[in-house]
């Protein structure tokens, strides 16, 4: 129960990593507010799972690309759950596309959701934490793609590198308020974001073969690292990053 008495906010939490992290934080004692864009049924199911654990939960719909979504999400969460102790920026998209004919709207939408949305969400959460006056933790779900490239991810990888850079800078800006800011770098995790890309059995076998631990990641693999960074066990960790990739990044052979 590492998060007993804490309130955690998670964006993009109706499915995938966000859903797993939201439920995982509740398993460690947290009350949870979930942001989601479209999947009402998924969000309600996640809330039900959290309430089964005896924790409070609410789902608030909103497109993170709209800056007003950030202030609304944080305000509603603070009002209904009492405070904001931990903020997990997870919402993101990756519509795979070739570089030379990348549509302007695909590029700009990816930037607005992944990077601009994160900026305003983190800003809103930080302002609430500063108002409360007793610190907090902010965690950005970046990606191994912040460190390596991808042929069909030229619009996506810069946003993930930007998320990590944002965490480094806000760690400095918010340290004086006792707010810790860190990044997680998931490797290939089996979620809706890449299910079409990995539907190719040959590509999936290749990706699995690149991972020293012998498998692709599951959303639940991000729960432990998130809970650690959110908890007081990480009270002297800020501006840091942690790979959660089964060893893929270090496998050069």
TrEMBL record:
- Cite the Ketoreductase domain residue spans from the record: 6-193
* Record bears the keyword Oxidoreductase: yes
Q: List the Gene Ontology MF annotations in alphabetical order.
A: oxidoreductase activity, acting on the CH-OH group of donors, NAD or NADP as acceptor; quinone binding
Top EC group: oxidoreductase
Matching InterPro entries, A to Z? KR_dom, NAD(P)-bd_dom_sf, SDR_fam
SMART domains named among the record's database cross-references: PKS_KR
Enzyme Commission code = 1.1.1.378
Superkingdom of the source species = Bacteria
Which reactions are catalysed by this chain?
Answer: L-rhamnofuranose + NADP(+) = L-rhamnono-1,4-lactone + NADPH + H(+); L-rhamnofuranose + NAD(+) = L-rhamnono-1,4-lactone + NADH + H(+)
What does the record give as its pathway? Carbohydrate degradation; L-rhamnose degradation
Pfam families from the UniProt entry: adh_short_C2 (PF13561)
CDD domains in the record, alphabetically? SDR_c
PANTHER family recorded: (3R)-3-HYDROXYACYL-COA DEHYDROGENASE, SHORT-CHAIN DEHYDROGENASES/REDUCTASES FAMILY MEMBER
* Family (UniProt): Belongs to the short-chain dehydrogenases/reductases (SDR) family.
Q: What is this protein called?
A: L-rhamnose 1-dehydrogenase (NAD(P)(+))
This chain's source organism reads Stakelama pacifica
């Amino acid at each position: 129960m590492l998060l007993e008495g804490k309130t955690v906010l998670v964006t993009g939490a109706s499915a995938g990593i966000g859903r797993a992290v939201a439920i995982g934080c509740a398993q460690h004692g947290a009350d949870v507010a979930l942001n989601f864009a479209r999947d009402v049924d998924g969000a309600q199911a996640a809330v039900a799972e959290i309430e089964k654990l005896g924790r409070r939960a609410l789902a608030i719909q909103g497109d993170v690309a709209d800056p007003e979504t950030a202030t609304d999400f944080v305000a509603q969460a603070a009002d209904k759950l009492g405070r904001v102790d931990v903020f997990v920026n997870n919402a993101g998209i990756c519509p795979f596309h070739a570089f030379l004919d990348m549509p302007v709207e695909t590029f700009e939408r990816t930037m607005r959701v992944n990077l601009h949305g994160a900026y305003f969400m983190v800003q809103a959460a930080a302002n609430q934490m500063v108002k409360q006056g007793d610190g907090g933790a902010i965690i950005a779900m970046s990606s191994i793609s912040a460190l390596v490239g991808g042929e069909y991810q030229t619009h996506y990888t810069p946003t993930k590198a930007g998320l990590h850079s944002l965490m480094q800078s806000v760690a400095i800006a918010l340290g004086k308020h006792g707010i810790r800011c860190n990044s997680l770098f998931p490797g290939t995790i089996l979620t809706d974001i890449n299910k079409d890309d990995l539907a190719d059995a040959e590509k999936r076998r290749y990706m699995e073969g690149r991972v020293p631990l012998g498998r692709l990641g599951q959303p639940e693999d991000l729960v432990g690292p998130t809970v650690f960074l959110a908890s007081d066990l990480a009270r002297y960790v800020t501006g840091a990053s942690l790979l959660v990739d089964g060893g893929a990044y270090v496998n050069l052979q």
